[in-house]
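Reviewer 2 asked us to include a model.

Predict the structure of this chain.
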Amino acid sequence: MIADNGLQSKKHGAVAAVLRRCAGNVVTALTILARPARLHPRQPWLPAPQQLAIVAAAVIAVFLFGMILIDVAAINAVGNLPRFVISAFDWFTDFGKSGWFLWPLGILFLALAALPLTLSRASQLVLAAVMVRVGFLFVAIGAPSLFATIVKRLIGRARPGVSGIVNPALFDPFQWTPAYASLPSGHATTAFAVLAAFGALWPRARTILLIYALLIAASRIVVTAHYPTDVAAGALVGIAGVLMVRRFFALRLLGFSIVADGALQQYPGPSLSRIKSVARELLAK
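Predicted model (structure tokens):
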């Protein structure tokens, strides 16, 4: 009985140690993210205010054009699609939810943070590089998705058919209900954030990522959950959000850097052979 109690006490102590190590590493990671920028590039990141105003005016004009000439026609057209096509998109559209990416990335980050600190220096550097990239993906996908979730409820654009008719000009701001949370599309935001974030780390995967993002965007229209302009706005938010997060990381020399001409470049990541070497070292302990 005493031996059993001692064994349980050791197990509890080991679990507590892992939790403390995980919490400590997470706090360290947040501290690193919160630190001031280490790079101060001379080139301005954003255009001059006049140029920004022109771009904003162009975006608004395109949105109004789409709202008047495209939105209603698109929603009416999808009603003529074969039932099996609509059913296929209805099944696929759920893969645009941010949880499909944020949960695995968050769990992976916590698992990496809980690993023992007794590894060799080389293995610790490999793990740090992997954690930076996992953290980048989590923030780059999560930040624009959260932004879209909040903003679309503030804007209050009605989803197709809410009023009994297709009325893309129906707005009721600050409703904070799903029926009036159409602009921008959260699924499209997530899908294009996934495209931009994973594509920033693995450029060769951009083609398949683009196909995924376009299918998710199309699915939101086919299932009449959004207008085309909602989807376009979501794509813009997703890509812009990733670009801002990537620059935030680059200014702190986390996975990316900024070269002399102001362009961003990715630091070389750990190879698969190095990751396997770390795994073997962990299994040997």
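The longest strand covers residues 256-258. The chain has two domains: 1-32, 47-284. We have added this to the supplementary material.
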